[in-house]
Inverse folding.
């Protein structure tokens, strides 16, 4: 096999690795993981973006480091080692968010520190990064991170629009979508609203997957 053929054969595999987290293995809408931050911080789009970026940084950096070191980590202490690696990057994120905006830091609260035990990050370290190359681990981490951030934005946009009538509230770039007579749905900013919106998105994605499956069955 020539070098060009090897590169071509690796291409689809890398693309599939990246796209898994976006759709086929979306951490929220398919695997239903990390529900605590999904329900807690999605009452505003800015909070969702901040949590998504923080999770992306921690997941990509920890996956890359785990992939580099997995051959040197004894199996008996691999989980403890993964937690130490993840906690290091979470600490960096924690201080960076405090330095950038105390308002966002207060809104995210303890959920920044809880990234350490987020099953998405620890799960990818154990199931993927600890068994694959650095390149594939980074691609997988980016795919999962973008899929997670996309899910956060799906929930946050619906909750903020219906619950506040705005987008990017509490920022200089706030967008008022409705007139002065709009009556906000206050429940959307409360925990029950998070459950309602999550149920709607889960139902929608399950319906889309079912349609694709049924179409594939009919075609074959």
């Amino acid at each position: 096999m020539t070098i060009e053929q090897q590169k071509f054969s690796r291409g689809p595999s890398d693309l599939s690795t990246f796209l898994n987290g976006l759709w086929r293995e979306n951490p929220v809408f398919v695997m239903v993981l990390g529900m605590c931050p999904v329900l807690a911080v999605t009452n505003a789009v800015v909070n969702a973006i901040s949590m998504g970026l923080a999770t992306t940084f921690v997941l990509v950096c920890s996956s890359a480091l785990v992939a580099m070191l997995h051959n040197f980590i004894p199996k008996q202490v691999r989980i403890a080692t993964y937690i130490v690696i993840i906690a290091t990057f979470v600490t960096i994120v924690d201080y960076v968010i405090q330095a950038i905006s105390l308002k966002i830091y207060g809104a995210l609260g303890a959920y920044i520190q809880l990234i350490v035990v987020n099953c998405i990050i620890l799960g990818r370290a154990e199931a993927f990064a600890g068994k694959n190359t650095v390149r594939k681990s980074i691609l997988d981490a980016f795919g999962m991170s973008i899929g997670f951030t996309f899910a956060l934005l799906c929930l946050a946009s619906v909750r903020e629009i219906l619950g506040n009538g705005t987008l990017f509230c509490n920022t200089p770039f706030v967008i008022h979508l409705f007139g002065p007579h709009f009556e906000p749905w206050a429940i959307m900013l409360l925990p029950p609203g998070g459950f309602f919106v999550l149920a709607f998105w889960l139902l929608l994605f399950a319906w889309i997957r079912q349609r694709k499956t049924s179409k594939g069955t009919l075609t074959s």
Q: What stands out?
A: Residues 17-215 form one domain.
